[in-house]
Design a protein that fits this description.
The chain has 19 helices and 23 strands. The protein is of the alpha+beta class. It has four domains: about 160 residues, Phosphorylase Kinase, domain 1 (2-Layer Sandwich), CATH 3.30.200.20; about 190 residues, Transferase(Phosphotransferase), domain 1; about 190 residues, P-loop containing nucleotide triphosphate hydrolases (Rossmann fold, 3-Layer(aba) Sandwich), CATH 3.40.50.300; about 70 residues. The strands form six sheets. Strands 6, 7, 8, 9, 10, 11 and 12 form a seven-stranded antiparallel beta sheet that branches. Strands 18-20-21-22-19-23 form a six-stranded parallel beta sheet, sandwiched between helices. A hairpin with a 3-residue loop joins β8 and β9. The longest helix is centred in the last third of the chain and has 40 residues. The chain is globular.
């Protein structure tokens, strides 16, 4: 099989002594050579550089040359492929795999030789190497992107400098740009377009949370991966024009290489007007993107000056939306309002409106602008769910939850937090986070018992699931096992149908349309471990489920986990709340030990609790051990007393 020229080639027999050798193809001259630890550059290019007196030909890592092979070559092509531990990959014809080219630099597909995985490598353009302002802008771009950690935004992995050249590495996103998908398809189906929009909005929520404005949302800056079975993943991939709302105006000025920041066809009216912009500008650009998805072209076209005038003054060409479903037309009108105050005010509002739009489209019903804003904005989350007559839930299933102790100490505030979340109509998901043994499951079980004593406080359905198997078998349960069981329990006609993503969406609808108390215990086995993807759910079904529940839920979903769920982090403090459990206080730890039968004065028990840092499980084990030790000691003492008694009974006989 022909080796991939874009990856390091390892061939048997290329190790001499302790020096490891690797066969490579020079990306400049095409020479095949053997690289070692102390000789990793093409000897032909080195000799050419020496003969011509050009130091750039020595193969310094990261050096940039505009014409390595003479006139006609692409500008900014790296002389060598290596940037620290990243190596630019080659196509089958030996050319560099270039993913994009922008105002600041060139983006390549590269290979992390240490981790053996593909990455996206962005290298600053050669013409800006001596421009301090441009270099600062490049660094700000990388640092702004690095602040974001969200499943719908490409993550920055590393920022580096090799010689005089800056570069940064991002996660490599499989698929194609939305721009290419639109060109290939002409126009997208409404369901797919709304799915892409909802994921981009989720990414923009992360941008908004970091007090950033993207300023260049457009199809070429969105990667789309259409997976087998119909699932789709969309990611924002470029923050080259991102602007911080907190930075001084003099620093904002370096964010552009000219007066205008953005792409005219997708820019908001306020970008053209030169006034300050916020996240509502990005929502306008997303509206233009959605327009192009469903029509195949942007609403305003022409020269840059003509496009600018149309964005500022011309009405929307609604006649081009003939054949587009009415709820989607209403959404486009709301997104493309020229006055930012008339648009959605933040990504959270739009996320809450999308399920309503989708439901109306599926039902073939019309919608009004007022329907889009029936959900209160995120800023006014003070209402509570209206209590109704207490009736026992129609169905209850909590057998899958772990068995824990019945007593709870020092968790009064945490119980009150769960009580408040249940009655707050704007809280959809709650996450209880703590390390193993702190008492997450015990807390939730105790709260459930309190709820059960009050007929579950008007919950219509109660369903609990632990991702750790209970009983002697141990182990963990998979997302598929949970999804299939939950779909069947909630009444799905055929849980086998659909992709994982579709199943998660279906389950979310079944859960959300009634007042359901859903408990997911021990979610951490299905989350990514520490690293760039830390806390993100690995399974599409769970991603879809939680994302939909955060957007809309008539009841409450309670999650326990050791790691915060990164997929819903952007909704925290609004529709999703997180509670970090503390260790037990000295007083609570002493009460726990006393309840376990440990004897001693208050000071001794508190000191024992402090010695174990208030760790609930450790104190429980300590109490059980001391109680067992006390029982064994009592048994030994009793046997000794019986022996003494027998000895005393025998003394008269011995005297005789």
């Amino acid at each position: 099989m022909k080796p991939d020229p874009g990856e390091p080639m390892e061939q048997p027999g290329l190790e001499l002594g302790s020096a490891r050798q690797e066969a490579r193809i020079c990306p400049v001259c095409g020479t095949k050579f053997v690289a070692t630890a102390d000789r990793e550059f093409c000897p032909v290019c080195i000799l050419r550089g020496a003969n011509s007196g050009q130091s750039a030909a020595t193969g310094e890592p990261g050096s940039i040359s505009g014409s390595a092979d003479g006139p006609g070559e692409k500008e900014d092509r790296p002389q060598v492929r290596r940037f620290e531990n990243y190596e630019v990959m080659l196509d089958e014809d030996g050319s560099l795999i270039e993913l994009g080219r922008g105002a600041m630099g060139v983006t390549y597909k590269a290979f992390d030789v240490d981790l053996h995985c593909p990455v996206t490598l962005k290298v600053i353009s050669e013409k800006y190497l001596g421009d301090d302002s441009a270099q600062l802008r490049f660094l700000r771009e990388a640092r702004a992107a690095a602040r974001l950690r969200h499943s719908n935004v490409a993550s920055v992995l590393h920022l580096g400098r090799t010689g005089s050249s800056y570069f940064y590495a991002m996660e490599f996103v499989e698929g194609e740009t939305l721009e290419k998908l639109i060109k290939r398809s002409g126009r997208l189906e409404v369901k797919l377009a709304l799915e892409i929009v909802s994921q981009v909005v989720a990414g923009l929520a992360a941008v908004h949370k970091q007090k950033l404005v993207h300023r260049d949302i457009k199809p070429s800056n969105i990667m789309v991966n259409l997976e087998q079975g119909g699932a789709v993943t969309a990611k924002i991939i470029d923050l080259g024009l991102a602007k911080s709302l907190d930075e001084p105006s003099d620093q904002t000025a370096i964010s552009t290489l000219g007066g205008f920041a953005g792409t005219p066809e997708f820019a908001s009216p306020e970008q053209f007007a030169g006034v300050s912009v916020d996240i509502r500008s990005d929502l306008y650009s997303l509206g233009v993107t959605l327009w192009e998805m469903v029509t195949g072209k942007t609403p305003f076209r022409g020269t840059p000056s003509e496009v600018m005038h149309q964005h500022l003054h011309a009405p929307l060409p609604l006649d081009e939306l003939e054949g587009v479903t009415q709820p989607l037309v209403i959404l486009l009108e709301a997104l493309l309002e020229k006055d930012p105050a008339q648009r959605f005010q933040n990504p959270g509002e739009l996320l809450k409106a999308i399920p309503t739009i989708t439901a109306r489209i599926e039902a073939g019903r019309r919608i009004t602008r007022e329907d889009l804003h029936k959900t209160p904005p995120a800023a006014s989350r003070t209402g509570t769910r209206k209590p109704s007559a207490r009736q026992r839930p129609k169905k209850i299933s909590v057998a899958k939850l772990p068995v824990t102790g019945s007593e709870l100490f020092g968790r009064g505030e945490d119980i009150a937090f769960l009580d408040d979340a249940w009655v707050n109509k704007d809280v959809n998901v709650v996450t209880i986070v703590a390390w193993a043994g702190v008492g997450k499951s015990t807390l939730v079980n105790h709260w459930l018992r309190r709820m059960a004593a009050e007929q579950y406080r008007s919950a219509q359905l109660v369903f609990g699931w632990s991702f750790y198997r209970q009983g002697t078998s141990g182990g963990t349960s998979s997302a598929d096992e949970f999804i299939d069981a939950a779909l069947a329990w909630f009444g799905d006609p055929d849980p086998r149908l659909g992709t994982s993503w579709e199943k998660g969406e279906r389950l979310a609808k079944l859960v959300a349309h009634r007042r359901t108390l859903l408990v997911l215990d021990g979610l951490e086995p299905l989350q990514n471990p520490p690293g760039p993807q830390e806390g993100r759910l690995r399974e599409p079904s769970l991603q879809a489920l939680l994302r939909e529940l955060v957007a809309f839920n008539s009841g409450l979903c309670v999650i326990t986990t050791r790691t915060p769920v990164a997929d819903i982090a952007d909704s925290e403090s609004s529709a999703a709340l997180r509670r970090e459990l503390d260790q037990l206080s000295s007083e609570a730890g002493a009460k726990l030990l006393r309840a376990l039968g440990v004897k001693g004065d208050e000071a001794e028990l508190r000191n024992a609790s402090d010695e174990f840092r208030g760790h609930c499980l450790a104190l429980t084990l300590l109490g059980s051990y001391l109680r067992m030790l006390s029982v064994e000691t009592s048994a030994i003492a009793k046997k000794y007393q019986n022996a003494l008694k027998k000895t005393s009974d025998m003394e008269p006989m011995l005297e005789k």
